[in-house]
Amino acid sequence: MRSLSKKSKKIIEKSIEEHKRLSSLAELTRAGARMMLEVAIEEELATFLGRDYYERRSDQEGSRSGSKPRTIKIGCGDIEIQMPKVRDAGRPFHSDILLPRVTRADELQEVIPLLYMNGLSTRKVKKSVSKLLGEKGLSHQNVIRVTGRIVEEFKNWRERDLSGIRVAYLVLDGIRLGVRANTMEKEAVLVAWGFLEDGRRELLSVSLGNRESYNAWKGFLEDMIHRGMNDPLLLVVDGCPGLIKAVKELFSQSDLQRCTKHKTENVLDKVLKEDKAKVKESLHKIFYASTYNHAKEAIELFKRDWSKKYPAAMDCLLEDIELCLTYYKYPYRHWKRIRTTNAVERSFREVRQRVRGIGRFKDEERALTMVYWQMKELRWYGVDMTKEARAILAGIKASKLERIAA
């Protein structure tokens, strides 16, 4: 391996002398970064020309032709380096280390999208990194362009093939999110999580719908089916009528579980404040019973205790009550994950916290990207696929296939 070129050695010597006069860490860091870049580019140029600085060879084309200044943005500020120019080489010289028109270090290319996706508006992103980017700062359009990489990632993700993902439990829910676009009525972000047959939990799809209507949910689910998603054994939903109708139509052979948390809240809305705690305890005896039969007994006790005083609450509880108890036929270890839509609701809280600083979005694509990014970054538990659990699910799957065949 050859030693450094004469020009590279001069760059290093000059940089050492400069270091002796610097005191702050930021200045030392910028000087060091400038030296390393200039040395690396000089070595590239020596290889490109096939000869050292001031070296003459008759069999080589091209020669040095001075240099031009170029400003590069790094983590600790702007640095200005001297980019060498070449003439008569038959082809232009381009550094592989510092490509043409690249002015920002890779670290900041990663940091800027992270700041935006964690809840800072483009204005706040610009302000937050201005000290790192030097005097020229960061324009609004630059933030839009850099964060656009995550938008592209989301677009590819939402169109991916789902046929290789085996879903056991599909959890569906929606969140209201402000979108400043021509589709102002499309305020509901529809989200699908899946507990897979191997026990892992995975975000499956995110889309914008028209106020969680039947048509919005039907289109959302049809898109996943079109991309190859299998029929899940169980779908977990809240009490949204449009969603329930769409699910029953598209997954007629799958079991349906209504969220017990939403059912509890709906019943309590019809109860006086002084009785809410006692009524809630009675509801917990239903939805946290050890067996299906015990849950049915708890329903009878609820009737005895509350039906006369709160007939509306009683009617609310009994509406689709069997759909609230579907989880009892599934493995006990999975009940906690599949009797509610909490798997999605908790992630919604994270999304709401992040979007407060942004307000309304300029377009639906960036709104959906924000939801996707936040949910993708969350770490949630899956379900424990024990030998017993697999056997129970295999039996449910066999029964489902028999119903379809019949």
How would you explain this protein's 3D organization?
Helix 1 packs antiparallel against helix 2 (25-49), helix 5 (140-158) packs across helix 15 (364-377) and helix 14 crosses helix 15 (364-377). This protein has three domains: 6-103, no CATH class; 107-157, no CATH class; 166-405. The chain has 16 helices and seven strands. By secondary structure, it is an alpha/beta fold.
Query: What number of structural domains do the residues give?
Result: 3
Calculate the terminal CA-CA distance, rounded to whole Å: 75 Å
Sheet with the most strands?
5 strands, mixed
Give the strand tally. 7
Q: Please tell me what the overall shape is.
A: elongated
Q: Multimeric state of these chains?
A: single chain
CA radius of gyration is: 31 Å
Strand order of the largest sheet: 5-4-3-6-7
Q: How much β-strand is present in the residues?
A: 5-15%
User: What are the segments in which pLDDT stays under 50 over at least 5 consecutive residues?
Assistant: 131-135, 181-185
